[in-house]
Design a protein that fits this description.
alpha/beta, five-stranded mixed β-sheet, two-stranded parallel sheet, 13 helices, 42% helix, globular
């Protein structure tokens, strides 16, 4: 069956998480020792380690509501892995990504996390801890960029095969939201974005456009134009269109978010000692190019490419090692 993105309530999601985490309970692992394994521990060692768990750390985007977090907390408690809510910590993704750094930077640290669904900006003071934690979540990530490329740069290239129908109707493609409104349009939820992505995947031409959008973004890392053949015609998309339609709005949203975070804490860009970039977008050359002019004298730290997809997981694992900050 097609993997249609169902709208799942926080309670249903929490129930699913509870079922997943229950697989880590000692009775289940005793009965099914190979259901959960690690590369560095034997099944017996893993069971022993799980019996000694004293806390659980969950990661979530910074915009997730208290109600959502409460449902996840109850799901963890229901598994019996820990018995008290005080043993469960929620760590926003920018914070988790920050703690994946080794060694941890000291001073005023700005984290810009370019993820799959959102871009998040966090300001922290270390090693004193997050004495003035400020987190901003922008409704735009890698998924939105891909759909923005399709809507703004690739859809206009489609042939108008029927004068009485739009090209989108002819090829069974969804009408995507204007990219210029994406980050400020809270109506454009992640569910709607995922639904539109699913609709693209169901159309043969939609799959081609998704692949073309990925190639286009990679091509513009090093080249000034992108060519795409549709039917018998080859189209040329200049890098200036990518800059004007996609990067310029995205850059404006990031700049506004950073300005808001700094203003909230009465700090100037010169006060920032480190900028940490994480997430799938952080390794694109244009990502650093957007941030560098804002902090010309600041040291930039980037999670190594091989670790980037796991940066949040590494940060969650390392977080308890920083006892003073955790307390």
């Amino acid at each position: 069956l097609p993997r249609f993105p169902l709208r799942i309530s926080p309670a249903a999601l929490a129930q699913g998480l509870g079922v997943l985490l229950s697989q880590l309970s000692a009775p289940v692992l005793e009965a099914y020792p190979h259901r959960c394994t690690t590369a560095d521990l034997s099944p017996a060692e893993l069971r022993q380690a799980l019996r000694q768990i004293t806390g659980v750390i969950l990661s979530c985007p910074s915009h997730f509501s208290a109600d959502y977090r409460s449902h996840l907390l109850q799901a963890v408690l229901h598994t019996g892995i820990v018995s008290q809510s005080s043993q469960i910590i929620f760590l926003e993704e920018p914070i988790a990504a920050l703690f994946s750094q080794a060694p941890l930077p000291v001073g005023e640290v700005l984290v810009v996390h370019g993820g799959y669904s959102r871009t998040e900006i966090g300001l922290f003071n270390l090693p004193q801890g997050a004495t003035h934690p400020s987190l901003i979540s922008l409704n735009c990530g890698q998924l939105a960029l891909t759909q923005g490329v399709i809507r703004e740069l690739l859809y206009p290239l489609l042939p108008q095969t029927d004068p009485h129908r739009s090209a989108l109707e002819t090829f069974h493609l969804p009408a995507l939201s204007p990219f210029a409104n994406w980050a400020i349009d809270e109506v454009q939820t992640l569910f709607q974005t995922q639904t539109q992505h699913w609709q693209l995947e169901q159309a043969p031409l939609g799959k081609i456009l998704i692949q073309a959008a990925a190639r286009l973004q990679t091509t513009f890392d090093t080249q000034s134009q992108f060519s795409l053949r549709i039917g018998q015609q080859t189209h040329i998309v200049p890098a200036s269109d990518w800059q004007r339609c996609i990067l310029s709005p995205y850059q404006r949203w990031i700049e506004q978010g950073i300005h808001s975070v700094l203003e909230r804490n009465a700090l100037s860009p010169e006060a920032i000692e480190y900028v940490v970039t994480t997430g799938s977008l952080s390794h694109r050359p244009w990502f650093r190019a957007i941030l560098q002019p804002l902090f010309p004298h600041t040291q930039f730290l980037e999670v190594p490419r091989v670790e980037s997809p796991l940066a949040v997981g590494f940060g969650l694992a390392k977080f308890p090692l920083y006892g003073a900050i955790v307390s």
